[in-house]
Amino acid sequence: MNASLAHENSGASPDAPVYELTNVSKTYARNAVVALEDVNLTLRHGSFTSVIGSSGCGKSTLLKIMAGLIPPTKGRVILQDKPVTGPRRDIGMMFQQATLFPWKTAVENIVLPIEIRDGKAAAKLAREKAHDLLDIVGLKGFENVYPNELSGGMAQRASICRMLITEPAVLLLDEPFSALDELSRDMMNMELQRICREQDATAFLVTHSIQEAVILSDEIVVMKPRPGRIAEIVHVDLPRPRTLDMMTTPRFGEIVDHIRGMLDKGENM
Amino acid sequence: MTDAPTNQRLETGAEDDTVWVQEVAFIDSVPRSIAMTFVFVVFIGTWDLVTRLGLVSPIILPTPWETFSDMIFVGNNLLSGGYMLVALWITVKEVIYGFALAIAIGFSLGVLVGETAFGEKAVMPYLVAIDTMPKVAFAPLFVAWLGFGIESKVALAAFIATFPIVVGTAAGLHSADENARMLFKTMGASRMQTLIKMKLPTGLPQIFTGLKIGAVGVMAGAITGEFLGGGKGFGELIRVAASQLNTPRVFSLILYLSLVGLVLYLIVQWTQRRVVFWQKESVGAHDH
Q1: Contacts of B272 in chain A (CB under 8 A)
Q2: Mean model confidence pLDDT for chain B
Q3: Are A116 and B187 a contacting pair at CB < 8 A?
Q4: For the range B89-93, what are the long-range contacts, defined as Cβ-Cβ under 8 Å and sequence gap of 24 or more?
Q5: Looking at residue B286, what is its pLDDT?
Q6: ipTM field
Q7: What is the pLDDT of residue A8?
Q8: Total domains present in chain A
Q9: In this complex, which of A69, A86, A116 lies closest to B193 when CB atoms are compared?
Q10: Are A240 and A257 in contact (CB under 8 A)?
Q11: Ranges of H-type helices in chain A
Q12: Is the CB of residue B197 less than 8 Å away from at least one CB of chain A?
């Protein structure tokens, strides 16, 4: 089953760069605000990267540029050797809200990206794959349930499936579990880790939680505001697979403290 | 109510010395049908008392019993296919045509205003301006333009019902949240796909609210049109009965007419329940 979900680039070597940003800057012309300045970032195949920073540090601008929703003012954005010039099939995205449509069943919601891109017939063919994905996220048996009957966590699981159905090369996660309570959130983060491993996915997470960033990531991009720029890229050397127990280890605490220290400095600027 | 078992479990062992029992308000223990019957009886009783004591002239206010017997008379005429049924059918036709026209125009304008920047910038101000006018005042114009036939009534009915549908449609199209819009962008959806697969379904509750308000307005429009422009509909029967000071007849005609309005409203509501099956019922929501 996983073989059928593997990416086109699954043959790539594990450290091959998937997403490359070079000197990316964004200035909003309307009020001449520099939202991003000279961002250089490389996402390697199968890695998990988080971006963290206070509000106004440009992380959501960065995410929108990476998703192909807005163009950068300057710089190069290259995904799988092709410049990003708009939304693409090989970019999967997930938001704070599950954003499932209440008039569609779970499966119909999951195949929606296929329906939009390839039409109804292709969407019908993708249903089987949607069933497999629901199985992976632990929602077997909920195929024909409407979103009203799903809990917040279940809805986010379904939206993970919708993100994965097009077999994207990179997953862009915009605070995906911040609307959930803390217990479900921890659980979903561990689920996310497992799914990313199983799918051999390259993930990019925007978060406000230092703990969440540290427990999930290989690398954490710490950003500073005005103008939005990268302050430091922190390498997390905790062993994989990560478990929630690791949150009590001294090494975890050190990394969290280090990042918090940097963010506090940013606040005082 | 769903957490009742939990409460029970917590309370066991303390049954004898329970000091704080939830009080149930009296009205919550009365079934709706009984409460409604109570109001009906009080209303009829007061009406009867007022006429019986001669507080109001019988020409102005007939007794309830006169009104009921006239309702039976009108009902018989309707059932036997008399002249009143012919008149009712004319009014029903005006209402149906008027509503269909209002839906077609209202929905199109709503999409124009709700979906395009041009519509919102250039057309919406005019719609708002016209909407603030007393639309009934246009009735003589419609008669002048379209004559004394059914057309002028259809036009007025449609004119009144169009605006709530425009507003409902435009508001509905705007009701999609930022996440849904962004999601559709990331999926590379065209503008048409975004409109049909996301914005319209998202806006259906508001669109139906507009339709319901329009359904009420279309009745008012048809009857006003008949009052001011003659014709052969039910409104004309009411006007004639009123001019003859036949108040029981006016009352019973109004009651039958309100049935037509009610049926139209219920059709819209029934359709809404079918189409917008995911929408939670707003009436009775306090039970949840």
Answers
A1: none
A2: 88
A3: yes
A4: B90/B150, B90/B231, B90/B232, B90/B233, B90/B234, B91/B222, B91/B223, B91/B226, B91/B233, B91/B234, B91/B235, B91/B257, B91/B260, B92/B260, B93/B150
A5: 39
A6: 0.84
A7: 45
A8: 2
A9: A116
A10: no
A11: 2-5, 59-66, 106-110, 112-118, 120-125, 127-136, 152-164, 182-199, 210-216, 250-268
A12: yes
| Architecture label for domain B74-287 | Orthogonal Bundle (1.10)
Per the CB < 8 Å rule, is B277 touching A103? yes
Residues of B in contact with A93 (CB under 8 A): 182-183, 186
Number of helices (H), then strands (E), belonging to chain A: the values are 10, 10
Pairing status of strand A170-174 against strand A202-206:
parallel
Give residue B1's pLDDT. 43
**Residues A34 and A112 placed together within one structural domain of the fold:** no
Task: Give span(s): CATH 1.10.3720.10, chain B.
Answer: 74-287
Same domain for A104 and A232, yes or no, is no
Beta carbons of B198 and A117 less than 8 Å apart: no
pLDDT in tens, B205-259: 999 999 999 999 999 999 999 998 888 899 999 999 999 989 999 999 999 999 9
Per-residue confidence of chain A (269 residues) as pLDDT tens digits? 344 444 444 445 567 888 999 999 988 877 778 888 899 999 999 899 999 988 878 888 899 999 999 999 999 999 998 999 989 988 999 988 889 999 999 999 999 999 999 999 999 999 999 999 898 888 889 999 999 999 888 998 899 999 999 889 899 999 888 888 888 888 888 988 988 888 888 999 999 899 999 999 999 999 988 888 898 899 998 888 898 889 999 999 999 999 998 888 755 54
Same domain, A32 and A155: no
Contact A106, A154 (CB under 8 A): no
Give the whole-angstrom CA distance, residue B270 versus residue A216.
Answer: 50
* A202 neighbors A19 (Cβ within 8 angstroms): yes
Q: Which of A137, A50, A45, A59 is nearest to A98 (CA)?
A: A137
Chain A residue numbers touching B183 (CB-CB < 8 A): 93, 95, 99
Inter-chain residue contact B182 with A87, CB threshold 8 Å: no
Give the integer Cα–Cα distance in Å for B235 and B222: 8
> Are the beta carbons of B179 and A116 separated by less than 8 Å?
no
At A69, is the secondary structure helix, strand, or coil? coil
Give the tokens for residue B37. 């019957």
Q: Are residues A201 and A239 in the same domain?
A: yes
Q: What angle do CA B125, B128, B132 make, to 5 degrees?
A: 145
CB-defined contacts A:B, below 8 A: 50
Same domain, A190 and A73: yes
User: Are A88 and B198 an interchain contact pair (Cβ–Cβ within 8 Å)?
Assistant: no
State which residues of chain B have pLDDT below 70.
Answer: 1-16, 281-288
In terms of domains, do A111 and A154 share one?
Answer: yes
Question: Do residue B184 and residue A99 have CB atoms under 8 angstroms apart?
Answer: no
Residue B21, pLDDT score: 81
Is there a contact between B182 and A102 if contact means CB atoms under 8 Å apart? no
A105 with A35, same domain: the answer is no
How far B195 CA lies from chain A's nearest CA (Å)? 12
Tallying the residues shown for chain B, one arrives at 288
Nearest by CB: A87 against B185, B202, B278? B185
Structural domain boundaries, residue A145: 100-166
